[in-house]
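[job 0417] fold request received: TonB-dependent receptor-like beta-barrel domain-containing protein
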Amino acid sequence: MPHEEHIIVNARLDEIRSALQSSTGATTYRFTRRDIENNPGGDNAPLNTLLLQAPGVAQDSFGQIHIRGDHNEVQFRLDGVQLPEGLSVFGQALMTRFAHSASLTTGALPSEYGFLQAGVIDLTTKNGSADPGGDAAIYGGARDYFFPSLQYGGHAGKWDFFGTADFVHNRVGVENPTSSFNPIHDLSNQYHALGHLRYTADENTRISLTGGVSNAQYQLPNNPGQQRQFANPSFLDSALSQQVYGSVDSASLNERQKEITDFGILSLQKDMGTVSLQSSVIARYSSLGYSPDPLGDLVYNGISQHAARSVFSTGSQTDVTWHANSQHTVRFGYQVYVERNVSKTNSIVYQQTGIEDDGTLVYDGSTRTVHDGSGRTGWMYGLYAQDEWRPVKNLTINYGLRFDGVDEYTHAKQVSPRINIVWRAWRGGVLHAGYSRYFTPPPFELVANTSLGKYVGTSNEPQTLQNNTVKAERDHYFDAGVTQTLLPGWHASFDAYVKLAKNMIDEGQFGAPIILSAFNYRRGQVNGYELSTNYEHGPLSLYGNAAWSRAIGKDITTAQWTMDPDDLAYIQHRWIHLDHDQRWTASAGGAYSFFYRTGHPTRISASMVYGSGLRADGAVPNGRSVPIYATFNLSLVQSFRDLFHVPFLKRTQLRLDVLNLFDKTYQIRDGSGIGVGAPQYGLRRTILTGISQRF
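[job 0417] inference complete; emitting structure tokens
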């Protein structure tokens, strides 16, 4: 197939594939290749920093984001194909470098989106047609930051291919638990790779194979000055205490965690005139392993636990679009996943020897080992059908049904009606309103069948032995908004939303291993407002947004053993803020390219992130927020078309990035709140430089 024809055919098939996913009535924020490059750090920046440019996206520790007041119900897709959930906590298995472009869709979603519905993040992966040639880069700087990367794409005949790989080494793998400039014991080594191979059989048929791998190892940072909680006073003064404890200090612990993710997607895309489809098979393996400090974890936490979890998911997804006539576009399809979840722990705990008069439990130096493990195979599935109906000019009604089911730790089903109305009311103005019924299965990999009875009479005995199985969440979701083109290149939007939830799913970190666990609030409510604007013209691009939200819950009804009994009693009959509730969130940024039309443009860009603070314990659980903060990032990129005057070398790019420009010291978490582990502080000022060479 000739070069030009190959590119044209693949561009057409890309458009058809994109049309398989209707976002009619939902709110979609798109990140072009230019937007990705304008973001300080560019392809080197973590994916969550790019997503913070969208309204209603709040940052949390461990690289997590919260979209519209939900904890972590974020769905990731590659080229329209949903990836099953994984176990990655700190890092992100999907790198910004993988994406040619990206989008975030939120609001009242059409019926083809199921399972995770707070936000749908779809990455259009780089490929040999849109991203030909190679690029080698080295990036690094402060805190031993070293980040080499390589990518190459091309095509031959009916084939095109793309591959990219990188290695990340730094000493800020996990957020610092103290306000110090540098964390203690925070080394991280990670590597990531993505490969994409496509065969275009003819102008209407394409087969693609995408595979990726992420392997990350982390030291968990230390927090000096912690109290030894599991040594009663009489034992502390004994000779045995000196023999067992020695000089154990919380500043010298050696806790580590390893996270692995592998995935593969094989897709067939076919266009048959009025009918087009994409059918895929998906596999994903994800594992997480925690290695304790053998003595330190015992002294400070009362348990030294080796913990390992893994989940292997395989499934299929098919989406079909039928252009029935000029008024009706019908879409239907299915998703089904079979998953195997395995959890194993080996724990050393203190044996309880008595109770003092004031009720304090007494332990001595004797320990015992507890082995625990569980495994379960389950599946979840969804079917949908919807009709995009245009009854009159400028009016579109998208209505449909979705049927979902889950048979894993919990067993539940639901039929979910959805409807969205979009009206182009005036020139440049669009009104939309929608309702969606949602069904969210609990995250299979975050539910472990812990044998609580094994820990009775030890330093890890739960304060309550109640452990009801985590349930599926059921929601009524309402959304309405308006978008307006103010001037050519200048757009603005306003959105309002309400979610009424039954069995609202939340997640928390309980214990030393950084493994999230799921639980339910019997009732939940989330509501908010978003304002967004962006402008792009020639060398200038600007964006800004602000969002207000409130997320509250009442009565924790599952996984109660992880909670403080007093908190459970208070929450049972009272509404509280969820731990990830942030009242105000905002971000803004811009970029300008000098010498825009020359072979040596100079681009300067900046970004700002503001948060009014996530929740922390006050007089009541989650009763206050941590202090407000605003951080600024700055980037300078100089490009040269032919710096070295070598025929096979193309663009050379030099970059300088300054993260947290004004060295703002700010807390993300203070260590208190429902399901909150250690304190976390944001990254202090970090200066990074890099060079990349196209070839």
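[job 0417] notes: The longest strand covers residues 361-392. Residues 149 and 166 are 4 Å apart (CA to CA).
[job 0417] exit 0
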